[in-house]
Amino acid sequence: MRKAATHPLRTARTRYNLTIEQLAQETSMSTATIWRAEHNYSINAESRRRLCTYFGMTSQELGLAITPERGQKKLLTTRAASSSPTLAPAHLHELDPTNTYPRHEGHATHTTATPIATTPFQEQTGLWLILGASQLSSAFEQQWTPETLFESLHIVSQSLRGMPTSVRLALQHYGIGSLHLKEHMSASECFQLQESFTHSVNQAWQFSHASRPEQVLAVGHALRMLLDYIHTLLPPRIHAIFSASIYNLIGSALHHLDASEAEEQMYARAYAAASEAQDPWHQAQSRNWQAIAANFAGRYSRAIQYIEEAYRLIEELEGEEFLCSKAHLLANWAYNAAILQDYAIVQEKLEASGQLLKALTPNDEFDAATWHQIAGNCTLMNGRYNEAITHFEQSLAQFPEHWRSRRALTLIPLAEAYAKKREKEASLVIAQEAASEVHTLSSKMLMNRLLEYQHVLIEAFPRDPGVRKFIAHATPTR
């Protein structure tokens, strides 16, 4: 006797290693409905839609029966309502997953059509590409390049790769805000998830050195939403540590956007999360960021108070990460002291920072390039222009080319030092490079710093036509 062919829905179900009961739970349907579908009984349109959405296949491919009356009346161009949003573009659910071939006026249609040989993944990706194009056009209008988009996707995808398959599939089918995870992971799966999320956060900080603040903000919020989604899968302390780092990242982007109130809120949340985790390193990091925000707001004494508190948190702790943070805090302490013209403290803190730095390997948080940048600013404020120029040039020689933000923060005071020495040509050449970086990054904080340099330039060369021309081109129209 010839064996009956396996029903397409059952084939798809077994490919996902699901029982009827499990599929029913995944799609919020009854087991009876799935049993009927697999035995060629008709099921209603909503049930067909849920199954098609889950597997990313059409009704024809899943062999879902349609009653003759409904089949005659159904138009292939009808849109299906969606009750389960996904991570696909916002309008993806408007496409009826039970249909792929629209009717054409004036041409006969067939009750069945030969589907193109594709996999569920190919179909889903094809729909995403079609509808995603309209979403991407808005990103391109906001100065996102294909390379930046790909890098952002890569950062987020690191976290997705570490998720258990069932969690990732649930995210794909139900969306990020509509599912309460109840997964039970093994110790190895939990470690893999933490490792992958750590890679994402570290890459996001790297991304922040070379990207526009709006783009960093988008990546930061994406990581925050993913962290909220998987929070039940992580130990509370690990979740709090990730939260602290991501809040600091978002705050740093808001810092460049000159959104001081929102920035300070992010740093306060970061500190609270780090305190909850009892993690002194992240506590010190958050306090240091709060000091930077206070400095830009002109609250220099308050900035020093934040730095002192941060330093006390890690003063007795050993290890390279703590030595690096202490070196960074001491240098920032010197910078704020220079603004307050306490040059004895400036010398003391810079020397202490430099001594710690000698024992460290190169580090993204604080390295010799950053130390020379801060030392250059301190000597510039003290009127030692040649010494400042030497520090800035040493800093630029060591910064990676793509770290545009830090390069701009070094180029601008270097141009200022040359202006104060009345070396106009050198100042303008460097200022042109700085202006290019500032406009590329579209950072309000850097633009304000560039405007401060222009005031110095006008004071040094009040009636110079070359200076006026530079200012006219460097200042954006508002």
TrEMBL record:
<dbReference type="GO" id="GO:0003677">
    <property type="term" value="F:DNA binding"/>
</dbReference>
<protein>
    <recommendedName>
        <fullName>HTH cro/C1-type domain-containing protein</fullName>
    </recommendedName>
</protein>
<dbReference type="InterPro" id="IPR010982">
    <property type="entry name" value="Lambda_DNA-bd_dom_sf"/>
</dbReference>
<feature type="region of interest" description="Disordered">
    <location>
        <begin position="78"/>
        <end position="107"/>
    </location>
</feature>
<dbReference type="InterPro" id="IPR019734">
    <property type="entry name" value="TPR_rpt"/>
</dbReference>
<dbReference type="InterPro" id="IPR001387">
    <property type="entry name" value="Cro/C1-type_HTH"/>
</dbReference>
<dbReference type="InterPro" id="IPR011990">
    <property type="entry name" value="TPR-like_helical_dom_sf"/>
</dbReference>
<feature type="domain" description="HTH cro/C1-type">
    <location>
        <begin position="9"/>
        <end position="62"/>
    </location>
</feature>
<feature type="compositionally biased region" description="Basic and acidic residues">
    <location>
        <begin position="91"/>
        <end position="107"/>
    </location>
</feature>
